Amino acid sequence: MSLSVLICDDSALARKQVKKSLPENWDIELRLASNGLEAINMMREQIADVLFLDLTMPELDGISVLELLKVKKLAEHVVVISADIQPEMQKRVTELGALAFIQKPVNPQKLNQILKEYGLL
């Protein structure tokens, strides 16, 4: 059974990089969003099993997305992917329910490790 995966980042290059970092044999239905508002709207139509989320975006930033997700329960597993690696920010996203925090650019081995750790791969 395939998983629903959503990559949300305002940078097309970053979305492409995350997509290329995903395991080749992973059975998924992949969707892409260019900002937090678009991601929330997409997840209202179909809840994402896995959401890869940037923090700094127009329309609705990643923190606001996490706050909405916590209330509405629209994503099962959220992995934050951001260049903002401040310990306070990492603590905040964890408090809001993110499983993990990955620094940009994505390290495919780190991503694989997280997916395996949470039984997603």
Automatic annotation (TrEMBL):
Membrane-spanning intervals of the chain: none
Keyword vocabulary terms for this entry: Phosphoprotein
PROSITE patterns: RESPONSE_REGULATORY (PS50110)
Coiled-coil boundaries: none
Pfam families: Response_reg
Cross-referenced InterPro entries: Bact_response_regulator, CheY-like_superfamily, Sig_transdc_resp-reg_receiver
Domain Response regulatory: 4-119
Highest rank taxon of the organism: Bacteria
Positions carrying 4-aspartylphosphate: 54
PANTHER family named in the record: PROTEIN-GLUTAMATE METHYLESTERASE_PROTEIN-GLUTAMINE GLUTAMINASE 1, STRESS RESPONSE REGULATOR PROTEIN 1
Protein known as: Response regulator
